[in-house]
């Protein structure tokens, strides 16, 4: 029994170390860049530029950076940006849903091509699903929950 | 400059390391759990019970395993299985594309969800919304594909009748 459990536990631990090292490698530098951008008021410019679209999902303009990082790189890079933003539970949940649906698009659309789903279609379907989910949560679910 | 370095250390490095520590606490047991599930073929047992979901998605029962694997372990594993199935010919083109759409929107639900929950997201809303979106978009695509297929089939038949 013990021997049979040891192997999967070992693989799980190895994967954890790999992912955690990846997290450190990606999240820390991204956070630092965001902090510097914030210091020089670059974040403010990006935020006011993207605020109208972001408002549909109830997210502040600054969150656009996290979305862009998540869409084109991966969830971990987005977390680097989220760490540097002051967000409440509702905002983090909406951001998480959008990023959960739509992340790492260049790589994952390439993987999905093997199912016969063309990359541009998968790309736009995921963006559409993410935006729909964000609007749905902001205007219906969270209103309904009275948060 | 000194002020910037201090903010960089506090807000950039220390805060992100704390965030990663928080993720670690949840991620490690979950990853071990996923490996145990793989080792004991638990997903094979779950996919045997996925018939109602498949019926709603208008997919055949062969679609269960790649779908459940993609949902649990991630899109890379799911896609690898799908490629196998496509080679064996046990799933047709329509079913493969539909599985692709479902999984591209909703995959690796355990790992992705855990990471965001560590940051304070609501896990129930997170999983349900992703699942709902995957379901709606897959179903819409199924209707669209079936309509087009029907048209293609009906057109030559019309000519035959006359």
Give a verbal description of the structure.
The complex is a heterodimer of chains A (147) and B (162). With 147 residues, chain A is an all-alpha fold. Chain A has one domain (7-145). Helix content of chain A is 81%, strand content 0%. Chain A has 7 helices and no strands. Chain A is globular and about 55 Å long. The relative contact order of chain A is 0.11. The mean pLDDT of chain A is 91. Chain B has 8 helices and no strands. In chain B, helix 5 (75-88) runs antiparallel to helix 6 (93-105). Chain B is an all-alpha fold. Chain B has one domain (2-161). Chain B has helices at residues 2-39, 42-47, 51-56, 64-73, 75-88, 93-105, 109-118, 123-161. The model of chain B is unreliable at 158-162 (pLDDT under 50). The longest helix of chain B is centred in the C-terminal third of the chain and has 39 residues, at 123-161. The chains are: A mainly alpha (147), B mainly alpha (162).
């Amino acid at each position: 029994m013990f021997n049979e459990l040891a192997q999967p536990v070992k693989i799980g631990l190895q994967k954890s170390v790999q992912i955690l090292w990846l997290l450190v490698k990606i999240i820390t530098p991204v956070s630092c860049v965001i902090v510097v951008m914030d210091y020089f008021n670059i974040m403010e410019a990006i935020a006011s530029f993207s605020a109208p679209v972001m408002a549909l999902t109830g997210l502040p303009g600054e969150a656009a950076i996290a979305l862009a990082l998540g869409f084109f790189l991966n969830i971990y890079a987005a977390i680097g940006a989220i760490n540097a933003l002051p967000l409440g539970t509702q905002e983090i949940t909406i951001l998480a849903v959008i990023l959960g649906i739509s992340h790492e698009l260049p790589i994952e659309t390439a993987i999905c091509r093997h199912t016969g789903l063309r990359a541009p279609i998968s790309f736009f379907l995921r963006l559409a699903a993410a935006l729909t989910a964000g609007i749905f949560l902001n205007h219906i679910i969270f209103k309904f929950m009275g948060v | 400059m000194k002020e910037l370095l201090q903010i960089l250390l506090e807000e950039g490095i220390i805060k992100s390391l704390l965030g990663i520590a928080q993720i670690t606490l949840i991620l490690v047991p979950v990853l071990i759990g996923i490996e145990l599930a793989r080792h004991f073929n638990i997903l094979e047992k779950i996919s045997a019970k996925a018939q109602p979901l498949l019926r709603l998605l208008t997919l055949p029962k062969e679609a269960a395993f790649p779908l459940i694997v993609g949902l649990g372990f991630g899109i890379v594993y799911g896609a690898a299985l799908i490629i196998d199935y496509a080679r064996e010919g046990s799933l047709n083109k329509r079913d493969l594309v539909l599985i692709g759409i479902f999984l591209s929107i909703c995959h690796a639900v355990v790992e992705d969800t855990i990471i965001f929950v560590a940051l304070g997201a609501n896990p129930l809303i997170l999983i349900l919304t992703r699942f709902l979106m995957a379901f709606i978009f897959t179903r819409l695509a199924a209707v669209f594909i079936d309509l087009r297929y029907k048209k293609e089939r009906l057109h030559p038949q019309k000519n035959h009748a006359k």
